[in-house]
Every structure is written in structure tokens, then in C-alpha cells.
UniProtKB/TrEMBL annotation:
Transmembrane segments: none annotated. InterPro entries: PsdUridine_synth_cat_dom_sf, PsdUridine_synth_N, PUA-like_sf, PUA_sf, tRNA_psdUridine_synth_fam2_C, tRNA_psdUridine_synth_TruB, TruB_C. Residues 34-190 form the Pseudouridine synthase II N-terminal domain. One of its GO terms (biological process) is mRNA pseudouridine synthesis. Its EC number is 5.4.99.25. This is tRNA pseudouridine synthase B. Residues 247-302 form the tRNA pseudouridine synthase II TruB subfamily 2 C-terminal domain. It catalyses: uridine(55) in tRNA = pseudouridine(55) in tRNA. It comes from Williamsia marianensis.
Length: 307
């Protein structure tokens, strides 16, 4: 019989911040991480389209339970919008539907028309998306040739800045490429912003490049490529560092740590939202949330059986 100690779920547990390459799916990234880290317990938060690059948050081992609790409600992107052409997917991966010469397009109008697309706006999501319509994904309905409409959603675009404008000659066509920086709420479709900007300008538009630079508190400054991960197959933040980076935290005594690790609750201290409970040794024992007279665990990071 093997004398190897049982796997606790805390060995190698934590978060990886991956800089996803173009042309691969978020699931492909998860598969690569599973292979490199030699574990099946890997998941991701916040899908990126294959054409997009940038920040993808990966949970490993017990930290996969943390993914759904992370506050990833704000996101930031660098993007390129091509004005002068529409596609059936609102991005460069689709088929071109219309073309309009933009050689006479006033660049000042571009700066003007991004303003109505900033703030609290009503946005119709891209048809090729994971949104469900009567139980089916919209992208699947598009492939089937189904006729359907997506309802507009309220989203927040806190920043929509034009960084650069270039005129692009492609054969006989003249397009205008607009580089933008966007900060927005989760659920905002940058493809839809590209489509709507082109519509407002009367020339059509679609997304040609997208790079996510930040999701929640995680930015490109802490991200690694899969190639870099292969050279050093470890998490970016172990489970303690991840909890203390991503959540507010309160210090607890050893007695309180023992209590919460056994599933009991603590006295509330007036902290809002989900926060980490840290023992005297700096270990995260649980993620707590206060309700009424209790601060109860929403995730026990270190149950008594693992301490």
C-alpha cells in the first residue's frame, strides 16, 4: 500500500491569471493548465472569445470553488473597431454583409458618437453569443438559421475613449480603424459597441481586435502566457494570497478559526459583502458573509478535516 499522504485539495491550490492568446478558446486554456499542472480540478471565470486575447482568471484545486465568489463585475479592454463594414457576427470572424466607403468620414464625428454609448446604456447583445433563448444558446440558433431577436440589456460603459484613428485601404475599399479603450460592467459586449458606433455613423462597423486588460482586480501586470506557465507550472497566487488579494479580510483568533472550520458561524463586525477570515498564521480559513446576527461561511477554505 502506498504511504503517500492523501491529496488535500490545498496542495497547489490558487488562482492563475493567464494572458490568453488569439485563436484558442477559454476551454483550450483550461485543458492546457490541467496538463501542465497535472490535475483535473481546473476551471475558469469569464469566457473570452477565441479571437480575443488577455486576462483570463483560472482556479486550481480548491480555489475553483472561489471563482463564483470573485467580484469580477468590472472589465477593461483595448479594442479596434473597423468602420465601413458590417458582419453577421459583429466581429472579424463573420461574413461581411455590407461595405461603405469611409474616405469622407469626419473623424470628429467618431469622438462625438462614442458619447451616447457611454454611461448607463441599453445594449442589444451580439447574436453570436452564449445568451440563452428559450433554453438554447444564441450562437447555436444562428448556426441553425433560426429567426430570433435578443432583448436589450442595461449595461454600464464607464469609459469609451478613442485612442487612435487610421484610414485603411483594402483593395478598392477604404475603411477607418478606430482604436479604443473601454471600461465596462460584466455583460457588456464590445462587439455590440462596435456595431452600434458604426450604425450611428451611418457606415457600419465591426470588431477586429480585442484584448482584455483587466477583470476585477486582476490585470495584465500579473498575467502569464501558457508558454510562461509551461516554464514554471505554478499558480500565480496561492489560495491564501488569492483570497487576501481579491477580498476584504478580517483577522480572527485561533479559537474562531477552529470554530469556523467546523462549520459554525462568527459574530458579525459590520463588514459588507464577502470577505476572508484570516487566522493568526496568515491562513485563509473561510470566506464569510454577514447576515443579521451571523457571519457565516459561503466557502470554507480550510475545513477542520484539512487543517
Amino acid at each position: 500500500m502506498s504511504s503517500r499522504p492523501p491529496h488535500s485539495g490545498l496542495d497547489g491550490a490558487g488562482l492563475m491569471i493567464i494572458d490568453k492568446a488569439a485563436g484558442v478558446t477559454s476551454h483550450d486554456v483550461v485543458a492546457s493548465c490541467r496538463k501542465l499542472l497535472k490535475t483535473r480540478r481546473v476551471g475558469h471565470a469569464g469566457t473570452l472569445d477565441p479571437m480575443a486575447t488577455g486576462v483570463l482568471v483560472i482556479g486550481v484545486e480548491r480555489a475553483t470553488k472561489m471563482l463564483g465568489l470573485l467580484s469580477l463585475t468590472t472589465k477593461a479592454y483595448d479594442a479596434t473597431i473597423r468602420l465601413g463594414a458590417t458582419t453577421d457576427t459583429d466581429d472579424a470572424e463573420g461574413s461581411v454583409l455590407t461595405r461603405t466607403d469611409t474616405s469622407d468620414l469626419d473623424h470628429a464625428r467618431i469622438h462625438t458618437e462614442v458619447k451616447p454609448l457611454t454611461g448607463e446604456i441599453s445594449q442589444i447583445p451580439a447574436r453570436v453569443s452564449a445568451i440563452k433563448v428559450d433554453g438554447q444558446r444564441a450562437h447555436a440558433l444562428v448556426r441553425e438559421g433560426a429567426d430570433f431577436e435578443l432583448k436589450a440589456r442595461q449595461v454600464t460603459v464607464s469609459r469609451f475613449d478613442v485612442v487612435d484613428i487610421d484610414t485603411v485601404q483594402d483593395g478598392d475599399a477604404v475603411y477607418t480603424d478606430v482604436r479604443v479603450q473601454v471600461e465596462c460592467s460584466a455583460g457588456t459586449y464590445i462587439r455590440s459597441l462596435a456595431r452600434d458606433l458604426g450604425a450611428e455613423l451611418g457606415v457600419g462597423g465591426h470588431l477586429t481586435a480585442l484584448r482584455r486588460t483587466r477583470v476585477g482586480p486582476f490585470g495584465l501586470d500579473v498575467a502569464r502566457t501558457i508558454t510562461e506557465l509551461a516554464d514554471d507550472p505554478t499558480v500565480s497566487l496561492d489560495i491564501d494570497a488569492a483570497a487576501q488579494f481579491a477580498f476584504a479580510h478580517r483577522n480572527i483568533t485561533a479559537e474562531e478559526a477552529e470554530s469556523i472550520s467546523q462549520g459554525r458561524w462568527l459574530e458579525p463586525i459590520g463588514m459588507a459583502g464577502v470577505y476572508a477570515a484570516i487566522d493568526p498564521e496568515g491562513h485563509t480559513i473561510a470566506l464569510l458573509q454577514e447576515k443579521g446576527r451571523r457571519a457565516s461561511s459561503v466557502m470554507v477554505v480550510r475545513p477542520a478535516t484539512l487543517r
